[in-house]
Amino acid sequence: MMGAEVLVSAWVDAGMWNERRTSPSTPGVSSPGRGAPCRHPCSLPGAASAHPSLFLLARVINSGKSQHNEDQACCEVVLVQQRPGQRGNPAAGEPEGGRKGLCFHYWGLFDGHAGSGAAIMASKLLHRHVCEQLRDLVHVLRDPAPAPICLQSDARALAEPSRAPLAEQDAEPLNDALPRFHLEKAVSHESLVIGAIENAFKQMDDQIEREQATRHVAGGCCALVAVYLLGKFYVANAGDSRYGGAGQGSPLPARRRGIPARPRPCRRAGFLRPELLGNEFTHLEFPRRIQHKELGKKMLYRDQSMNGWAYKKIEEDDLKFPLIYGEGKKARVMATIGVTRGLGDHDLKVYSSNIHIKPFLSCYPEVRVYDLTQYEHCPDDVLVLGTDGLWDVTNDKEVAEVVMDVLMGYEPNDPCRYTVVAQELVVRSRGVLKERGWRLANDKLGSGDDISVFVIPLGGPGNYT
């Protein structure tokens, strides 16, 4: 029976990746058992033993829309080693030329569309790209000093003679009246990590494009990634998945989905490169489709630079189909795709045409940062990551209620409590199969999409600090 197969995965204290499938007749999700060790070249073996909390993933196949679950997920503990030849940080206790590394925790949800190829590839490789981008930053992030403008390797440092600092009497006095063109912009360590994650998404997207033919990478995917590094959570979202915090003291608000959350960049691309519109679309926005009989009349519109609305005289070009049409969940770019951020989709074209849609899509995520060291968390505080299959039928308040109801029924040190939270969120959003399809408790339609949920505890015995 399609839709009744559920997969639960957990990263446990021994660093193992567990999977157990329930029987098709089982209405719930079974607790995971121990599985084979998860081995990865970038992983830190046994690192999870220092963090006994479970990071739970529950997944369920859609209610008959397709034969396979196009959602993919990944959970890793990754060691980032400094590149050979880079200078250490004596101020941070590192020897020159040292190879100390950083460790980060990583969770990723990938919601595939038009095939699962891009989602599978991203789930296996995106964390490696994050690791690679962070390798240049190991010694910088360990140093409390501001980030250097230019990175310097050991080889270059040895080749250049050391310069003694100018004596105070030899220094040229500063003149506040003169323009200081030499002043440098201060860049925080937080901004460096955000940039590393953004570049990792771009590198992943480029790799999908390079290998889509040889590896048969079909379609695209939305990507929601959480990275815990040096006391902070970096949550990167490219697509219509969402995340939110739940619990007594969680500082993490639920974030809106990205469908299409970026109409202005799309319209700007259409304005700057009208040839991409194929003489079929207009970058202007109107409250509704323009009819031919309205030529010459003045109607409301806005262009790529406007927040408000104005009136313009309708011309022949305004009769073209809008670049973005519809509102909310029903909005579509070029009447084809409902998201403006994501990975893949390099071959996606407008139906029955040769117009490529990729130039109007972005692989760069929206990255939000949450400093967990600024808050005191209890074992009931969690971060919930979910694909749109969850959020389409379950709102923020309902998610928070499920989290609190489940957690209050278990002891704070019981690791199974997070398993049950993920299970309950998935099962409630899927609903129960009745004569009129899958129905929720209120008899409304359940989610017809694949549903994947991570529940990540923020406090208690498994506190990241």
What descriptive keywords fit this protein?
2 domains; alpha+beta; 465 residues; single chain; Phosphatase 2c, domain 1; [pyruvate dehydrogenase (acetyl-transferring)]-phosphatase activity; 8 helices; disordered N terminus; 23% strand; 6-stranded antiparallel beta sheet
Structure, described:
A hairpin with a 5-residue loop joins β1 and β2 (17-21). The strands form six sheets. A six-stranded antiparallel sheet has the order 2-1-3-20-17-8. Strands 4, 5, 6, 7, 15 and 16 form a six-stranded antiparallel sheet that branches. The chain has two domains: 6-151 and 187-258 and 362-459, PPM-type phosphatase domain (Phosphatase 2c, domain 1), CATH 3.60.40; 264-338, no CATH class. It is globular, with a radius of gyration of 25 Å. By secondary structure, the chain is α+β, with helices and mostly antiparallel strands. Helices cover 20% and strands 23% of the residues.
Number of helices: 8
Query: In percent, how much strand structure appears in the residues?
Result: 15-25%
Distance between the termini: 44 Å
User: Which segments are poorly predicted (pLDDT under 50) over 5 or more consecutive residues?
Assistant: 1-54, 155-169
**Broad CATH class of the largest domain:** Alpha Beta
Query: Could you report the average pLDDT, rounded to the nearest whole number?
Result: 76
CATH architecture of the largest domain: 4-Layer Sandwich
Query: Biggest sheet: strands side by side, in what order?
Result: 2-1-3-20-17-8
What is the name of the CATH superfamily of the largest domain?
Answer: PPM-type phosphatase domain
CATH topology of the largest domain: Phosphatase 2c, domain 1
Oligomer: single chain
Shape summary: globular
Largest beta-sheet characterization: 6 strands, antiparallel
Taken together, the total number of domains comes to: 2
Q: What is the rounded Rg? A: 25 Å
InterPro entries: PP2C (IPR015655), PPM-type-like_dom_sf (IPR036457), PPM-type_phosphatase-like_dom (IPR001932)
Protein name: Protein phosphatase, Mg2+/Mn2+ dependent 1J
GO cellular component, one term: mitochondrion
GO molecular function: [pyruvate dehydrogenase (acetyl-transferring)]-phosphatase activity
